[in-house]
């Protein structure tokens, strides 16, 4: 397992980060099984765990807290706030009111006195960025969080937040958490270069493109069952041309992985952590078997030839299906484009 600096925070983290979204009722409801997965990841050298308040309505944080009860000092814990937590209109967003309340809830669920990395799950267009930065800066001063970042932020808004922090004398966003995979490379255009310029750490999510890069999506094979297909039809409907392109790319990548002597899972994750701007790739196993299939990606160095072949299949900066950008910007929504 390789270890890297998390931007300029002074914190060192593993190249693979254990994502906890699948722990709890929305994924694996067996707490003991989830804890075994976490412990296996830690034993394999992972020292970085990422969760969020909304994952299974706080249950994921509780599981992570129980799993780390005796190992808290050795693990870098990241969690998030911002997506709607429940039906209360004030239990969402990035206002000072909710950020200050939510961090206390997360601390209790995690059973800890501090959070290493506290992230805004999505920036809130209804809240002045200075209010969010001010609340987070106060939490750093109080010792409740060590550093803070955000997730799925367009490059222009990353720059705006950095400038606002400098002008107002606030702590700044130290990390970004964007979606990134071989099938979704849009962030190579501007987000990743921007994070490099500002010395930010980057922990990417969905390196397996929501299952498309697990090896199950082949042209002549029966498509695997997926609960996500019902929730995200635009990303899985093979009647759409963009998804036919994804299928062809996934098939070509699987063949490339076989030629290179590795699984497609290993190829996909190794590709993500090879980018110089990426600190850590978040893997999100639901079962121990999922974890074991992903751990071997650590330490794999893809050759220049393999990387060039990947670029031929999916060119740099290209996302084959725009839906895979995970609502990367709201500027293209109908509401933002029409008076």
From TrEMBL:
Tell me which UniProt keywords the record has, alphabetically: Oxidoreductase
**Superkingdom as given in the UniProt entry:** Bacteria
**By its UniProt entry, which InterPro entries does this protein fall under?**
AKR, AKR_Detox_Biosynth, NAD(P)_OxRdtase_dom_sf, NADP_OxRdtase_dom
For this protein, the record's Gene3D superfamilies field holds: NADP-dependent oxidoreductase domain (3.20.20.100)
GO terms for MF: oxidoreductase activity
GO cellular component labels: cytosol
Domain NADP-dependent oxidoreductase per the UniProt entry, residue ranges: 15-314
User: Which protein is depicted?
Assistant: Aryl-alcohol dehydrogenase-like predicted oxidoreductase
């Amino acid at each position: 397992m390789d270890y890297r600096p998390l931007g300029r925070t002074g914190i060192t983290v593993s190249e693979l980060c254990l994502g906890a979204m699948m722990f709890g009722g929305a994924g694996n409801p067996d707490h003991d099984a989830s804890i075994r997965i976490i412990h296996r990841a830690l034993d394999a050298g992972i020292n970085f765990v990422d969760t969020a308040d909304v994952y299974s309505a706080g249950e994921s944080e509780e599981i992570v807290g129980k799993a780390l009860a005796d190992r808290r000092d050795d693990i870098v814990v990241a969690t998030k706030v911002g997506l709607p937590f429940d039906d209360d209109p004030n239990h969402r967003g990035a206002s000072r009111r909710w950020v200050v309340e939510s961090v206390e809830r997360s601390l209790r669920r995690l059973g800890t006195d501090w959070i290493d990395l506290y992230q805004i799950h999505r920036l809130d267009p209804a809240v002045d960025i200075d209010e969010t930065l001010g609340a987070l800066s106060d939490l750093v001063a109080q010792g409740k969080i060590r550093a803070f970042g955000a997730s799925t932020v367009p490059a222009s808004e990353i720059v705006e937040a950095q400038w606002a922090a400098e002008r107002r004398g606030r702590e700044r966003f130290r990390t970004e958490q964007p979606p990134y995979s071989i099938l979704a490379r849009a962030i190579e255009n501007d987000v990743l270069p921007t994070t490099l310029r500002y010395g930010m750490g980057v922990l990417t999510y969905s390196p397996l493109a929501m299952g498309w890069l697990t090896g199950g999506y082949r042209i002549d094979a029966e498509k695997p069952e997926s609960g996500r297909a019902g929730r995200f039809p635009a990303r899985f409907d093979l009647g759409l041309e963009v998804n036919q392109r994804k299928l062809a790319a996934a098939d070509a990548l699987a063949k490339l992985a076989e030629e290179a002597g590795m699984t497609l899972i290993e190829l996909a994750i190794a590709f993500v952590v090879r980018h110089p701007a990426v600190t850590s790739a978040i893997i999100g196993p639901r079962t121990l078997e999922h974890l074991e299939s992903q751990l071997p990606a650590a330490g794999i160095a893809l050759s220049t030839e393999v990387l060039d072949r990947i670029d031929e299949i999916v060119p740099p900066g290209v996302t084959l299906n725009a839906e895979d950008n995970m609502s990367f910007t709201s500027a293209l929504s109908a509401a933002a484009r029409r008076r």
